[in-house]
Amino acid sequence: MLDRRMTQFNILRGAVAIFFALLVAAIFIFLTSESPWESLRYLLIGPLVIVKDGAIAFNTRNMLEVLAGMTPTIFTGLAVCVMFSANQFNLAGEGCVYVGAFVGGLIGVYWNLPPFIHPLVATLIAGIVCSVIMLIPALAKVKLGASEMVTSLMLNYVMLYVSMHFLNFYFADRSRGATMTHSFQDTARVTQIVSGTSKLSWGFIAALIFSVIVWFFMYRTRWGYSIRMIGINQSFALYSGMNVAGMIIVSQMIGGMLSGMGGSFEILGRYNQFLWLNLPGYGWTGITIAILAKNNPAAVPLAAFFLAYLNKGCMLMSTKTHVASEMIDIIQAAIFLFFAAEQFLSGYRQKIVVKTAREELLMQGNADIENGGAENA
Amino acid sequence: MLKQLAEWVFQVEFLFVILRITAPILFAALAAVVAEKAAMSNIGLEGTMMLSALFGFLFAYWTQSWLLGVLGAVIVGTLLALMMGFFYLEFKTDIILAGIAVNMLGEGGAIFLLFMFTGLRGNTAILVTPNILIPTIDIPLIKDIPFLGKILSGHCILTYIAFLLVWLIWLLLYRTPLGLNIRAVGESPQAASSVGVSVKRIKYIAIAMSGALAGLGGAFMSMYYSQGWNQGMVAGRGFIALAAQAMGRGEPVGAMLTSLLFGTAHGLSSKVAGLPNVSSFLVSMIPYAVTIMGLFIYAWNRTRKLKKRGIRRLTGV
Description:
The structure holds two protein chains of two kinds. By secondary structure, chain A is an all-alpha fold.
């Protein structure tokens, strides 16, 4: 009874949080847009439907783009789930996506491998490189007690600048106007699922598969259990004999691996060269996704879809009605704050708990009276 | 090359520049110190600085008065911090997550708001007028001292305020009842509350002060340091400040010393960038790499001391 009501409550709470976030968005839209209703329409249903001459049609192209946009953020979302579950506030996913894309891209340019194998090898190596990088904050945390949060924040910049250095001085294609690598070999591309401009690649399927794998790891294996237990109560985990230090390292290495793979799939699936000159922001989106999913890997694709949908809506709103697309960050921050708020609507939750308890007591009481009556007879 | 670096470090102009570069980091580091004393990790400093820098500049532009601009920046910084405090204290949002949300606002939200208010994208270079920029002042007497005068005099007003605040924050924390309460709430909230201190109220005050200090840092960045607001302006200074706080043992003076260290790293990196055959990218990395190394050395030192006293940390290492 209580479980069911709590689920209902959690869904309601999520809905209210999203409502508030969209309300904030709407306020800004009404402040800035010349045609606020149209802007709002593009934001909310733009990615889903096309309205042409009064007729409404399903917008296949935009929806495919939404799905394509989920690929890197599912990976970063999973990465954050694993690290935050162990209470490791490692925020270097952002830099890892960049390095992963760079490493994956380089392998895509310079190695010669058969198709299908090529992108997989590139992505795997990108993941391994990033998990090794994550050893820096992880070991510093375990061996020295240095806060992984501050280290990882600094590490983002170090990863960006070191990659930029190698890109500019060793791997840049000088025949082009902008800084970028040579084109990837055809064998290195992650194949598209549907032809067209959407760029929805098999990387998306890989992301979904990894959601299942990471869920299995977190909820059905001994290591996953240890990681979650460290997050819930580190002293308990330590005194019950779990390898706390080892698991703290493992969780951050997995986080690095997943983020790096996300970057590699993204670059080999949707680009022809590596040409990012700044951190792409997928790492931070991953944090929002993990919060929305409550650190549950199984819920990550759904959360990623939601944010990719809003992102696409913001883009449409920006191109069609000139509201700056950075609106997405304001919406994201608002959703983030309300979702992370443990006590948001806690008064109402308390009422549900009390009401359920009363009802159960009452039923118990009635049952006792009946039983008691039977005994006395 | 090392010799050349050493020469630079002791040049008058370079020492002057270091103080200028240190000031914004110092503001943010002091903000981190005050919040951390009340047991709150204010990771939102980066975003707070971004937004207060933007609004400081805009207020100054609208009123054509740098003083009102600085005031606006402080108010915006305080409001953002209070928002963080509200979610943290009323809704039990993890303070780190609340900080990340503020950083998201600072990242894209600042660009959005700039566009909304002015129609500009990414920077405010065309709005800059001399009235907006915070003036520099020469200090009488000191400016006539040979070597020192050139280093210490002629800074922007906020630079002096930054270093003055080190002392003021120390006074506040260690010589006033409010400071005592802040430290008590940070060290043992139960004990503080058992003697009648309202933990919530003290935490609100601490986070608000933290936001106000970050606001000053933001104003310094947009209205003096980079002469106008632009997108990549804060560049991790809010995060570096957290490291400065940790390495400075959470004390105002310690934070000042580590801020000076990071300021020197920044200053050197812009000097080295001018040399031929040096990768500007590796040079840009220096301040962040120095910060990481500084953190590690500090943590290693502390761990060694704890081990000597036989204290094991919870990871069991």
